[in-house]
Design goal:
Layout (H helix, E strand, L loop, with lengths): L1 E2 L6 E3 L4 E3 L5 E9 L6 E8 L9 E5 L1 H20 L15
Antiparallel strand pairs: 1-2, 2-3, 3-4, 4-5, 5-6
Length: about 100
């Protein structure tokens, strides 16, 4: 079951998936593989097909990679909210004295 948020896409009640405004379902889960010699844990992203049937994508990230992706997503969300598309200080409009 999904619920529509006031300021964002619909979210599932399990809070592991979201549905974007264009209809893609993005699932985030923890994948644990337990071979005897060394357990492997990954964070998986499963981007489902769009409303037109275009295929999605799947990725398995280490914890550090997931944190790096989260940082980049938050950085770019901030840029989008400010209406800018570049990093760094805002351009100067004239000479500063």
């Amino acid at each position: 079951m999904t619920t529509a948020g006031h300021d964002g896409p619909a979210r599932t009640t399990e809070d592991t998936c979201l549905v974007t405004t264009c209809g893609r379902r993005i699932a985030v889960r923890c994948l644990r593989l337990a071979p005897a010699h060394q357990p492997i844990t990954r964070i998986t992203l499963d981007v489902g097909q769009d409303q037109g049937g275009e295929p999605g994508a799947w990725a398995a990230l280490t914890a550090d990679e997931a944190r790096d992706l989260a940082r980049l997503l938050l950085l770019h969300a901030g840029l989008a909210e400010r209406g800018t598309d570049t990093l760094g200080p805002p351009p100067k409009s004239g000479p500063s004295f």
